[in-house]
Design brief:
Blueprint (H helix, E strand, L loop, with lengths): L5 H5 L38 H20 L7 H24 L2 H23 L11 H38 L1 H5 L2 H16 L5
Helix pairs in contact: 2-3, 2-4, 3-4, 4-5, 4-7, 5-7
């Protein structure tokens, strides 16, 4: 059975990816209320795709719901709060990566990279505005804030870069997965653009 409580996912308890096409990786009762409908899979599903789509949608919804609920102040505490907020989503994605087929792995790695990169951007957005008139002192203080946040965001960027690289590796190992599936092809193309423009490293 593919359905697992969230606590088991955190430990990456072994699951069989194709044991039950009609169920997502997680029990709807274990996720936040706004995300529960996304975990539902049609009962007549005959492939893994609907369940994987439910897993990825639930991971995205959980991250959005929990990070938006945070009141963040620039600094290390914000990093801890954001890490705690996105960890359930990362656990879901890691479980899909650990148990899914190549298609599922590519989509989950892409979602993971996007989530980590987005979390870094969220942290950087906490920098206070640079008020006018700009003085040498105010500019120096602003730059100190930005530099501190940039350092704090680096681990997420590095992990995002690793995940984007995994998308590339998986596609290289199984190029037919992208050529035969427009959704996978878009994920592969997205990761190429991310790595080319440096979005994951900003």
């Amino acid at each position: 059975m593919r359905s697992l409580p969230l606590c088991a996912l955190v430990a990456l308890f072994p699951v069989t990816a194709h044991a039950d096409f009609g169920r997502a990786m997680i029990d709807p009762n274990t996720v936040d209320e706004p995300c529960r409908a996304l975990v539902m899979v049609p009962g007549d599903a005959r492939s893994l795709e609907p369940a994987v789509a439910a897993d990825l949608s639930a991971a995205s919804c959980l991250a959005t719901t929990r990070t938006r609920a945070l009141s963040l102040v620039p600094g290390p505490q914000a990093v801890q709060q954001l890490n705690e907020a996105i960890q359930p989503s990362l656990s879901i994605l890691d479980a899909v990566i650990a148990t899914g087929d190549t298609r599922s792995q590519i989509l989950a790695e892409h979602a993971k990279a996007d989530l980590l990169s987005g979390t870094a951007v969220r942290l950087m957005a906490l920098a206070p505005p640079l008020h006018r008139p700009v003085t040498a002192n105010s500019l120096a203080r602003y730059q100190d804030y930005v530099d501190e946040l940039d350092q704090l965001a680096q681990p997420w960027r590095q992990r995002a870069t690793t995940a984007f690289a995994e998308v590339q590796r998986l596609n290289g190992d199984d190029p037919d997965a992208a050529s035969a599936d427009p959704v996978v092809a878009q994920a592969v193309e997205d990761q190429r653009a991310e790595r080319t423009t440096g979005v994951a490293r900003r």
